[in-house]
Amino acid sequence: MDTHLWSDAAVEHPDPTVLEDLAVAVAAETAALALEVRERVVGRDRLDTKSSATDVVTEGDTACEALVRERLAAARPDDLVLGEEGGTSGTPAPGQVRWVVDPIDGTVNYTHGLPWFSVSLGAEVDGQVVAGAVVEPVSGRVWRAARGHGAHRDGEPLRVSSLEDLSLAVVGTGLGYDPGRRSRQAAVLARIAARIGDVRRTGCASLDLCAVAAGWLDGFYEHGLHPWDHAAGGLIAQEAGAVVRLPGADPDGLGEAATVVAAPALAGPLTALLVAEGAGGIG
Ligand code: IPD
């Protein structure tokens, strides 16, 4: 058998900067649609729900995901898409691009008139995110990264915080939709609150990760994020110099559901504090 046909060298990998440009273009167009539809969504009393009574899905989420799928199919018909609302249509082959899409991250903020929500698109190849964009419809900020090419906000290079003292760190976190998990998360947060500088919960994980990339937050952690919540933001933070620990394995006792993203000097101490205060039991 001619084995070279089966080696990695035979698979042509796409240029991450080309995928990054496409992610930005599609996310920016979708952000405009999200704003348009928001007029009809904010303040509505009854919204459809998914995993729990507070996990809402709106006309904005479905319309935005449909637009993303349409634009990606037109530009790159051979790629796969994993979307928060529409799921996935297959298993990627070696070298095949899979887009990981959150059409509106921060849906609860979106329905409440709060400005912190985003359109988030990550492009994954062989299980690794290689490009991504997070666009904020209200502010117009564009966060972007391509693996090996750095992370940028509106053209400016991003760099994480250089803080070394965890007791001064401003740490973001998130709380899940399941009430049981949420109360375990809150209990851990109550225990670590006195050991760090301050806490933020914005309600939009992709923007929390971008905030770490910008050094606005010194670190972030949450249990239960989905791939679409962290695909683009995780790469943006990593390219800005953050240490990124994603769900899927449990190398440190925090559990398979944990995400921890922090400035290099803080990642170890933050992880150790979370383990010591029982975050491994959040589930
Ligand atoms: C949610 C937000 C929130 C985080 C939740 C996510 P969604 O995403 O990112 O900040 O705490 O875990 O599910 O549902 O608004 O796309």
UniProtKB/TrEMBL annotation:
Catalytic activity field: a myo-inositol phosphate + H2O = myo-inositol + phosphate
Cofactor needs: Mg(2+)
E.C. designation(s): 3.1.3.25
A UniProt-annotated Pfam family: Inositol_P
Keyword terms, alphabetized: Hydrolase, Magnesium, Metal-binding
Top-level EC class as recorded in UniProt: hydrolase
InterPro entries documented for this protein: IMPase, Inositol_monoP_metal-BS, Inositol_monophosphatase-like, Inositol_monophosphatase_CS
Family recorded in the similarity comment: Belongs to the inositol monophosphatase superfamily.
Name this protein carries in UniProt: Inositol-1-monophosphatase
